[in-house]
Amino acid sequence: MSDYVTPNGSQPIGQPAEEHMERIISALQADQRPPVPQDLAPEDAEAAQMAAMLRGTLSGHAAPRPTFARNLRDQLERELFAPETPAVSAPAPLPAPQPPRRAGTSRRNLIRTGLAAAAGLAAGVAGGVLVEEKGNGDTGESIALVGANGVWLTVANVAQIPLGSALRFTTPQLVGHVVHYQDGTFAAFSAACTHMGCIVAWNSTEHAFDCPCHNGRFDDHGRSSGQFLYKPLPPIQVRVVGEDVQVFVPPTGTPAAPTPSATPDSNGGYGHDKRGDEAK
Amino acid sequence: MSDEQRTPPTPDRDTFRAFYEAHIGAVYRFIYSRVGNREEAEDLTAQVFVKALRGMDWSRDEAALVAWLFQVARTTLADHWRAQGRIRTLSLDDLLAEGWDGPTASDPPALESLTPIAHVEAILQQLPPNYREVLRCRFLLNYSIKETAQHLNLTEANVKVLQLRALRRAAELHAGAPTQPGAEQHHV
Prior knowledge:
The complex is a heterodimer. Chain A is α+β, with helices and mostly antiparallel strands.
């Protein structure tokens, strides 16, 4: 037994490191994202990276799942080949009926200004919305959702949004949240996660938006605050007129009354996999 | 990068689809071989394509597009490790980088040749037998901690100690492995 456990003398090995590593290995064996302890020593971080590589090379589990490959392809194609003019369609989250596709200059602008942001929009926006050429990927600046020709829509009553909380709203073009800060001011953000476009949900305990798909988290100012850094949630202009909370959204040919809703029903299932599904 | 003047041409659907279908598997395998689990591999693979398409110049030949794709994959992985506080770059990354930075021929490099299996095997061979065996149990045979303990006739606590030391040692070998900066690259 002591043959196996040779003290190497360099440093004492604490119990936590061993337990951390075991949890990491177990997760890898289950094909799951390993936990990342914040206090992992550098040499153990490298040991964990080694574990990932051993698992990755020796397990033979290297082919993408067909559903994953197909979903990703479909998502990318939607972004690349979306119609040039903003399409107005039902407020139904997804999947929206797709008008004939053709590529055009505005589409190129969209790609240039940030396909990642477009990915974020995909789930929240039925059809397509022109992204104002403003955002700049390398500053992490978010991208304005609406051009000059948007319209103000009332989405809530001030009293509906207690201080320190957020309310989800749905307009024909997008899903968003209005946040009511402790100082009484308001802000609004698109609810489409800037990672893959899943709809984030308000976490009232953490005062943050959580993405159900890949553990993304954004603080109440829309800034990425989770384990993974994503672009900020695109802000939406908001104002208070009397008791009405209004947001500035793209114009629509058929202005349907926006319906504030708290139902988590529109997590479109775009481009992300439902991991649970396939675990038999 | 942020060349405001040039507008990259948009590919037609068939071009995009052919490119995607040709390379999704290789990108995924590349990522998987480094992160070792499906959840992160899917997450990062999606990021790679989204990011790569943003800067893709479709007027370039396929070798250049593939080089770009894998450059994005490599930086995405680097960002991934950095976000987890694992900052030291590993020499295998550098080795792989060399392969992708300069695809000179018009045909894309053979992706399979970059699979670091040979590298991993070499590291395993340099380990003391007990270290090698515990890693084989956990990563090749996929034994649980309990099965590993039975197989090696150790307690589970001992296995935890042993596997941690084995991984630390393997990481050291990995970090100090074949290609040092400045040395001639000799691809295996």
